[in-house]
Sequence to fold (412 residues):
Amino acid sequence: MRNCSIFTLSNGIRVVHQYIPTTHIVHCGIFLGIGSRDETLANQGIAHFWEHMAFKGTKKRSSLDIITSLDSIGGELNAFTDKEKVVFYASVRNNYFELAVDVLTDITFQSVFPEKELEKERGVILEEMGMYFDNPDDAIQDELEALIFKNHPMGMNILGREETVKTLKKKDFQSFFHNHADNRKIVFSCVGNITLEQVEKLAKKYLEKRPPQKSTAKRKKFNTYKPRELTLQRGVKQTRYAIGREAYPLLHPNRIPFYLLTNMLGGPGMNSKLNLAVREKHGLVYSIDAQYLSYADTGLFAIYFGTEPKQVKKCLSLIRKELDKLSDKRINEKEFLSAKEQIKGQLAMSEENNLGLMIMMGRAVIDLDRVPLLQEVYDKIDAVSAKKVQKVAQEMFDEKMLSYLVMEPVSS
Fold:
């Protein structure tokens, strides 16, 4: 199905559009190639804080105006920040598409960061930090990233630190946006029953009036990974465990083979090797999964699970056994073909979610300057050999290169 159109405005902003005639909802978003890795220790958390402040007032809308703009017509307005991007997005009925574009461009480019709202939102973010760190599943991912990407912006928590969040001021947001916002790294993505002509007209009306801007800021590359071990004591009942290491970046030739391998090991399917070995056969965990995230110049591989303290050693033994199997034994052809079909099915089902499709398209244009056809992805998966997957497993599952993070209950 994927057959999207991409064009570039005169100011350098790119637009990607997918026409879907069978829906009454349009999903659209503005993607900025700015994230938490662009921060320093002094302003840690500013990208996420800025995302919040974008909703707190613009030159023509108050905070209440922004909140009610799309809610009042049954639409949704939201945003998120990750390591390399800030995204503002909306979902509305087709006839409100122009309103959505108006609101999105307004909050993205015309925020005024009112002092009164700034202080209120500072409190909200501090509460969000407390809630987030109370969730061990979220906290352990952040702690593992800090361990893997030690002393690098990639390892800094997206929410920031309490001491930095408490000190950020209006001028800090303005200078951060000015220094990092680059029209060449801004993308407007749109999916819905909206014609390309309509998208072009509104993109020129609302996005093209932003002046051309290029950023000279350069990201610090990560090339200092060393395996480490860390034990933390927290107020948890189970022992939470994470195993991980640096992985392949976005454009690495081993990315697709490793993505396939990780999906086999601990993907969302109930038939993943870790789920079958640790949960189904031995009943030691409620859930266990493996994850692979790729970034511009690095990546992260991780295995997460939680269990009773007395069962940790058994879990680790079973996990190591599965990693060794994938490294030492060639996967039989029938199982390998099944694994490929499984991951292709997962990708196809994800395309049925139009909001997810819109987000995928925006990310792809920023990262790749194109949106690969689904068949192209299938072909790359089909081209992966069992021998290649085994070779990647031998490299990535090398015990000497893995880091271990333990979050255990506080000693009584």
Observations:
- The chain has 15 helices and eleven strands.
- The mean pLDDT is 95.
